Amino acid sequence: MQTEPDPAGATESLKRIALLARGVAARASEENVTFLAASVAYYAFVSLLPAAVLALVVAVTVGGQQLASAVVVASADVLTDSGQELLVTALVDGPGQGSVTLISLPLTLWGALKVLRGLDIAFSQVYGTDGAVGLVNQLRDSLVVTVSVGGSLGAMVVLGTLVAVVDVGVVAVAASYLALPALLTAAFLPMYYVFPDTDVTLREVVPGAVFAGVGWTALRIAFQAYVDLTAGGDGEGAVYGVLGAVLLFVTFLYFGATLVLVGAVVNVVLAGDPEKTAEGSGDADGRDRQDKGTDTRAK
User: Fold this and answer.
1) CA atoms of 83 and 271, how far apart (whole Å)
2) How many Å apart are CA 89 and CA 81, to the nearest integer?
3) How far, in Å, CA of 297 to CA of 218, rounded?
4) Is residue 297 part of a domain?
5) How many structural domains comprise the chain?
6) Taking a C-beta distance cutoff of 8 angstroms, is the pair 135, 117 a contact?
7) How do residues 187-223 score in pLDDT, each as one tens digit?
8) Distance, CA of 240 to CA of 237 (rounded, Å)
9) Residue ranges making up the domain that contains 54
10) How far are the Cα atoms of 117, 146, 222, 223, 232 from residue 229, in angstroms, in the given order?
């Protein structure tokens, strides 16, 4: 015998989802989440760019002249002859490697610390705490987040590279995309647990991590589809292609940071009462309208 669907239960679930979405939107707007995400994205870009250069120098040091030549050939479409010569000097020559390393390493460390500090401040603002913790606790939290997020994202990059390079078939590609949300959720979970400067349980922070993991997966698929759609063309717009790639990367970081912070808002709203949060937002709007009306009558 088949069980009849429960329209009342489905309606109640939709109502709670709508209340949750309204509460999250109200809290995110109140805490200026998009503004905080912009600062995190900027420092992430500042740290990742020199980190990529530093990783390239290390790879060339290990791979030698052959890898350096491959890098130069790959850059032929976006660099002039003099630019390629400078790239060879920086990658192969000892003094060039030293100068690039001396510049990239401190920039990478500075940017990474700014990203972690920015996330810590953003989480404190979302949770309504003052964020006044000791230096030891800040370093501990930053280390935990760096190891977990860095390791998981590194595994994600390796997985994506293997899928792109090795002919693993359609099933394996689909499986990699299905595994990506779980991998990203595991990467973000420690961040949602250690950054709030208040007592939280693992169960309370799982929804935000899942939201960020699924959101980043959808964001990656959307941006990859955009890149595939706009790829190609002749060499006329090579420089504009580089600038476009930079803008696309910064935009990706901005939306990614926004998803991470909205995940924190989801945890805060779920830890309370979404219905009260939404009603509180409506009451606040009503008070604002009432105050404006009072001011108008007074004038």
Assistant:
1) 55
2) 12
3) 50
4) no
5) 1
6) no
7) 889 889 988 878 889 999 999 999 999 999 899 888 8
8) 5
9) 24-278
10) 36, 33, 10, 10, 9
